[in-house]
Amino acid sequence: MSRARLxxxxxxxxxxxxxxxxxxxxxxxxxxVRPGLAVVIVGDDPASRIYVRNKGLRAQEAGFHSVxxxxxxxxxxxxxxxxxxxxxxxxxxxxxxxxxxxxSHLDATGVLAAITPxxxxxxxxxxxxxxxxxxxxxxxxxxxxxCLMLLRDTLGDLRGLEAVVVGRSNIVGKPMxxxxxxxxxxxxxxxxxxxDLPTVCRRADxxxxxxxxxxxxxxxxxxxxxAVIDVGINRIPHPDPALAAQGKTRVVxxxxxxxxxxxxxxxTPVPGGVGPMTIACLLANTYTAAARTAGIxxxxx
Length: 301
Description:
Layout: E1 5-6, H1 9-31, E2 36-42, H2 46-61, E3 65-71, H3 77-89, E4 95-98, H4 108-113, H5 126-134, H6 142-155, E5 162-166, H7 173-182, E6 186-190, H8 197-201, E7 206-209, E8 227-230, E9 234-237, H9 241-245, E10 249-252, H10 257-261, E11 266-267, H11 275-293
Parallel strand pairs: 1-11, 2-3, 2-4, 5-6, 5-7, 7-8, 8-11
Antiparallel strand pairs: 9-10
């Protein structure tokens, strides 16, 4: 049996960013509206700072108006929500993203709820979750939106396929299930309490792993020929004991990739699969928000 086709998230993300950049240029030319993205980071978490810098750079490259607000780790709930209030009222800002995690003294639920739903380009606001659930236009969380785009690029029509989503988070698992339902898939949401998880996974034509457990999904859990989307990004000790002793790590997904590659029809690598699509979809959501603000229907991206 031939090895699985690799689903190239880097190439798909680059193509999406190109389409977003071109659509944004047309929006600027026709309506004078430049998509604006504001990213808010609280504290000094190194990984968060890298993510925020990358998001800002990608936004600028796409021709967006891009601003970053870097706040002290001691910022209060009231100060943070006041900043969000100012961004909600800023006509030049169409998308607001608050980088998570926040310092422990801050209530992330309250912070996210303070963002105007139409500017919630992360798609985490309860209003957007409700809109997605009932099939109304919504800001869709970036990672599951990127997963859906990869699946449609790989498989084409998803109607009638059996999909299993392993993970039930509000950020990935639940919205992923809603998106697949909207594509007329038959969807099962599995999780840590699912009985006989391997057997459930083996039913799937589409298997999405989003649990945050390194290499949980083994090759013999996968239906031959299935499309496997690995959302996980986990750091584990390096397999070389000498390097592990130096604190070196390697990045793996929630799927045992080498095993999956022997069984699946298509699979995303980690890194280079889902990850690049997340930032690309953030730009797509910001463009969509700007177009709606201008009173026009966003272009299909």
